[in-house]
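Supplementary Note 3. Input sequence used for the single-chain structure prediction.
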Amino acid sequence: MAIWLTENSKIIVQGITGSEGLKHARRMHRAGAKVVGGVNARKAGTAVDLDGESRPVFGTVAEAMATTGADVSVVFVPPAFTKDAVIEAIDAGIPLCIVITEGIPIHDSAVFWAHAVATGNKTRIIGPNCPGLASPGKSNAGIIPADITTPGRIGLVSKSGTLTYQMMYELRDIGFSSCIGIGGDPIIGTTHIDALQAFQDDPETDAIVMIGEIGGDAEERAAAYIEQHITKPVVGYVAGFTAPEGKTMGHAGAIVSGSAGTAQAKKEALEKVGVRVGKTPSETARLMRDVMKGLK
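The predicted structure, written as discrete structure tokens, is reproduced below.
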């Protein structure tokens, strides 16, 4: 099994009629994902072409779910409208909502995340500002390239999209069960800890790569969780060792304030609980190779 996204997942794309939504819907379709339709209230009743196959456009997420049985939504909606799109998906009760959009105001993310919690956490949110979720050989939801790795038994959770891709490529001969880009905004839905526990519970995942970055304390909290709850081997990497203090680096959440949130502090917290941490992505991949050899 893959975590959260399987070969049976039925995907709709909110914003499928936009250039990005349609481009990636076609790419997901080519990767073998079951893209069953899209949502755009202004284009309801029309259809889009996915490489010669027609898919309906619905007015609402609820209508799309009722008609197609969709259980995953991928959100390619402009930042100003993303909050309403995610709240609509939550109200429709879709189990998984993957928010690709970047540049969403933090307040908007707080609002839709709070709404998910208030309605019973029936919808798992991944993102925002993330590349999505790929289960190689099974399905692909988001913007993660489908041809850079193979199915295998490593689980990957990462704040960084590009480092997700690099790790998938460097370990392509070993392969992955699922690869999750959780996004680097200060407020995100699914966390490192959520993914770590899912991989711990997944019988087809043998080891985990966790990629973090400077800023905040998510990696330190993940380290504490690993010590208490994770028995599978974990290899880590923390981006931003050379980042100057007080400068936002790439992601909105990647800012160092004083001694808090530094790459070195995160590395030490992880190593203290037995996580092997690479100084570069390539060294991290080599550490994972060593781990996988030891498991054979």
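The domain at 148-295 is CATH 3.40.50.261 (Rossmann fold). The chain has two domains: 10-126, 148-295.
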